[in-house]
Amino acid sequence: MPAKVVVGVQWGDEGKGKIIDILASRADVVVRSQGGNNAGHTVESGGEVYKLHLIPSGILYADTLCLIGCGVVVDPKVILSEIDSLAARGITCENLRIDPRAHIILPWHIELDGLSEKMRGGSEIGTTRRGIGPCYMDRAERSGIRIYDLVHPEIFAEKAKHAAILKNAVITKVYGGEAIDVDKMIEEYTQYGQRLKQYVADVSVLTYEAHSAGKNILFEGAQGTLLDLDMGTYPFVTSSHPISGGVCVGTGVGPTCIDEVIGVAKAYTTRVGKGPFPTELFDETGDLIRNRGNEFGTTTGRPRRTGWFDAVIMRHAVRVNGLTGLAINKLDTLSDVGTLKVCVAYRKQDGSILRDFPATLEELAECEPVYEEIEGFDDDLTGCRKFDELPQKCKDYIARLEELCGCPIKMVGVGPARDQNLER
Ligand code: GDP
Ligand code: IMO
Ligand code: MG
């Protein structure tokens, strides 16, 4: 039955949380398959704002099964505090399940994330410093510790003690940092494990069974296409696969499960962290968009870099994700910004025109955006409830984006609330 994937198609923070929350009203199951608490997904419901980092954005619906797949890296302390703060607001996590194969983020991952960023000097990635990269490194190196281990105290203590020898040696001898107190860590994390035990279940099996029973499944992407380890702006990327293909390996289901792939973008572009950004604005218009759009990171509070909509990136995203539709958020933010610009292609230094996003930073460095100007609008869009209610200039802007991206735009956002999403 219908299984939809929702992915970010820029550099994250496109408003995936809002779209998931809206689509989750029609879903039985919501699944996260990659990333960790580097994600920050905002959901506005009933005048309340929820910022979710690890728990799927379907959690606001009491009957929706919320699954965390094997490809997610779980910080036990963070997920428990998220469960507790939701409980304090009357939201139960009874329907939450975590795959036993998911790797856990431990204090040394967080420590090493910070230390290695410092060591990179001026060429740091600008990570969220949540230990994401170091945890995925251990997973790939086959030395990681998983949820199954965490909820079995003896296994956890043994694996943690063993891992600590190398981790503390690297922290102290390579980076000159301070060693982690392993016994204290084991005691603390064993308690987290005992609390998390009740949520552990095989997510591959649960998803497959739900699919076989004809239930509606929603796969919630985190980060965005340009932060993908391979398809993004490497090395300024995250350490997982936010593209739609990542859903299969991060959940444990085959690609034949998936019927639709919705890409979420903003009507302009933002990026938090370092790395190239061809349409970045360094002027007042950039500041205006940042302030109007409240472009400050949900996870770290860092100001987001802002720039024009980039159709080259979008065509890349349509291709690598196999998008069947787009949701364009934050059209309201562009009101009163003046003439709008859209990047339609890149021009290389030799004058040639590039329509496809380059594979490497070296090639990207040789490119500058080719812009098309589109008439702006000054109407307040936040009260619109139907696509037809949008002013003609906005409809024209959306129609032009659709043409340039080569993918139908199915939803347009004019505000953060559930009812500020206009379906076409
Ligand atoms: P995510 O990481 O993709 O889920 O996005 P974030 O939650 O990090 O950032 C998106 C921000 O934009 C959040 O504060 C949302 O509440 C907000 N938002 C989403 N859609 C819209 C929209 O159409 N208009 C406006 N003004 N804000 C929106
Ligand atoms: P959501 O799901 C925006 C960025 C970081 C940094 C790079 C690597 O809310 O869209 P990491 O901590 O993952 O090793 O950092 O990736 N980044 C995000 N940017 N939204 C996110 O998630 C992000 N998750 C990671 O800023 O540039
Ligand atoms: Mg976010």
Quick take:
With 424 residues, the chain is α/β, with parallel strands linked by helices. It is built from 13 helices and 19 strands.
Largest sheet: 9 strands, mixed
| CATH structural fold name of the largest domain | Adenylosuccinate Synthetase, Chain A, domain 3
Helix and strand content put the structural class at: alpha/beta
What binds here, in terms of ligands, is:
guanosine-5'-diphosphate, 6-O-phosphoryl inosine monophosphate, magnesium ion
Number of strands: 19
Count of all domains? 3
CATH class of the largest domain: Alpha Beta
Separate helix tally: 13
Give me the Rg, rounded. 22 Å
Low-confidence segments, ≥5 residues, pLDDT <50?
Answer: none
Amino- and carboxy-terminal Cα gap: 22 Å
Helical content band:
25-40%
- Average the pLDDT over all residues and give the rounded result: 97
Query: What's the CATH architecture name of the largest domain?
Result: Alpha-Beta Complex
Order of adjacent strands in the largest pleated sheet: 7-5-2-9-1-10-14-18-19
* The CATH homologous superfamily of the largest domain: Adenylosuccinate Synthetase, subunit A, domain 3
